[in-house]
Amino acid sequence: MNNNKVIQVEGLTKMYGDFTAVNAITFDVKKGEIFGFLGANGAGKTTAIKMLIGILNPTSGKATIAGFDVYTNAEDIKRNIGYMSQKFALYDDLTVRENITFFGGIYGLTRKRIKEKSDALIEELGLEDVANKLVGALPLGWKQKLSFSVSMIHDPKIVFLDEPTGGVDPITRRQFWELIYKAANKGTTVFVTTHYMDEAEYCDRVSIMVDGKIEALDTPKKLKEQFKAENMNDVFLKLARG
What is the pTM of this model? Predict the structure, then answer.
């Protein structure tokens, strides 16, 4: 594996009978890069991400994540990544601190490290006043930011975020992206799927999926130049129209 490439994908495909959900996608992602995986709902983004994180077997193709093969090293992949799903993944009936402690234990952190991480996360997110309240009582935006931070608690090499800002207000979305920037600046690779085309502007590079295929991949600036578009939404619309 190229030392600077923490994700390498070649011809990755997933079929369900005669239906091709992900069609021979090829790309790589560098260490510390914010890589946007864009496309409309149903384009194949979630299926692709499930193959990359080791919970769905590809039909064909190749992929290595943090140096581990998706076919043979799924458990090693899971230990070296963080993952935040579309749906809120924390437990509503546990407190903020209890959730952090629980997931820290799942990721194999020591009690001392969990205590240190809990205190740091609660302070960073400004959750001191609600640390002992049930997560179910928190606003959605706070839940999403907490979920992201918990996915990073074990200092993974790569964090996969599947539609992380769905349903939150614009201000919270911006705050969430500030957390992403901080993670990337520390060397964590951020792989983020979204159908919000304006969020593409925040990424170092973006790919755009249409009907299971990657139809474009480059920096936002170069894609706008290539498609003679004022913004990424215009790029996407031109691709979607063929």
Answer: 0.91
